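Appendix C reproduces, verbatim, an entry submitted by the partner laboratory led by Prof. M.T., so that reviewers can inspect both the input and the predicted structure.
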Amino acid sequence: LGGGSMSGSCGAATGSPVMSGFKKRNRLQFQHDSPARTQSLWLTQSHMHQNRLLLASVAACINDAMAKQLDYHTIREIFSRFEAAEAEPKGELDHTNAYTLVVAVALSAQATDVGVNRATKELFKIADTPQKMLDLGEEEVIEHIKTIGLYRNKAKNVIKLSRILVDDYGGEVPNSRGALESLPGVGRKTANVVLNMWWRYPAQAVDTHIFRFGNRSGVCPGKDVVAVERAIEDQIPVDFQLHAHHWMILHGRYVCKARKPLCGTCLIRACPSSPSAAAQHATRSRPGGRRMREQ
C-alpha cells in the first residue's frame, strides 16, 4: 500500500510519542528478567503494538489518499500520453516461455524483479519446463533462489505446481484464470500477469504501484485491489486495456513513487496529490491569493 499522504503518516507511526512511551514502560517492566527473555518479550510486544498503530494509520491514509474518479476524456488523455512515450511497455521479469513466466511471477512476491532475475538466470538455463524442474528437485531449486525472500516456501510451491502441470495439464500451462489460481503459489495477480504477458489478454494485475497510482491520480481509485482492478476494467478505454497495467506499474515504480514522487517529470501533472496541484489549491484557498511555496 502507498499514497501521497500515506508515507508521511505511516512513517511517523513507529516514531511517535506513543511508541516511545511504550518502549520505555516495557524496558522497566522487563528489567529483572534474563537478557534473552527481556529482548524476546520487548520485541514481541513492541512489534505487536507497532503493527496495531501501523494498521490504523494505513486505514486512515487510504481514506485520505483516495482521489475522485477521473472522467473519460481525462483518462483517455493520460493513456494517450503513456502510449506516446512508450507504445509497447514490457514487464521486467525475465522468462523464456509461459512456464518460466509463471515461476518468475510467483517468485516475485515480496521480492524485486531485479532480485528474481538474478536468482532465475541460471535456474532457467537448466529447468525451463515443469519436468526439468521436477528432475532438478526442491533442494537444488532452493540453492538457486535462496537470495530472495521466503525462498524455502517458494521452492516448495514451484515443485508442487510443476507436479500439477505435468500430471494434470500434460506439462503445459493452462490459460484460464481459474486453472492458474489453482496452482500452489499462484494468486489472482500472478494469474493476471501471465494471461496478459503471454496470451495478451487484457487482464489487470494490480500491485502496490498500481494501487498507489490509481488512488493518487483518480484513474482507478478503490479501497482494495479487486476494486481497483474493476475500476481499470470499467474506466480505462478498451484500446488501452492491454498495456494499461504495465504503463501504471512502470509509472508507479519510477515516477509516482511512494515516498518521493517525481512530480516534476510526470507526464500527467494533473494528479491531485502533486505539489503543483496542491500549491494551486492553496493559492485559491489562501486569503489574498498569494502562491504558497511548493514543497
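The mean pLDDT is 79. Additional entries are available on request from the coordinating office.
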